[in-house]
Amino acid sequence: MKDATNAIPIERSSEQEGFSNRRLIRPSLSRPEHNHNHTPAAMERRDRPDRPERPPMGKKMPPPETTNAENFYYQKQMQGKTPMVVVLRDGEEIRGVIEWYDRNCIKLNRNGAPNLMIYKPSIKYMYKEGENEK
User: Fold this and answer.
1) Whether pLDDT at 43 is above 60
2) Which residues does 76 contact at the CB level (< 8 Å), separation at least 6?
3) Which member of 21, 34, 69, 109 has the greatest number of CB atoms within 10 A?
4) Beta bridge partners of residue 117, listed in sequence order
5) Is 121 contained in some domain?
6) Between these two residues, 37 and 52, which has the higher pLDDT value?
7) Coil, strand or helix: which one is 22?
């Protein structure tokens, strides 16, 4: 048997009909004909060199060879003529002011004693004179 109810068409308002027929259009920003922003800043961004390629995921880049933190520290102590205490690996403490440094050694000026050139591998640690006194 057939269903006795007749199908009644539902009227749609023109607002709903217009909304249902709309499509979402996403313009491609990589194509130059769609890019209407011709400001100088936009042109500069496009002209700058590409970033270096990153290594494949899973492999980290090794840290930089030098961070210049050591150089900055030595420069600051030299400019301020800060009295320093250098503790060697054998426990000996040497007091003086850093005159200069290079990759392998530092030169300490001492009052009333000869100046010393100390190889960095023989240094255990160093600190500003008076820091450990409480």
Assistant:
1) no
2) 82
3) 109
4) 107
5) yes
6) 52
7) coil
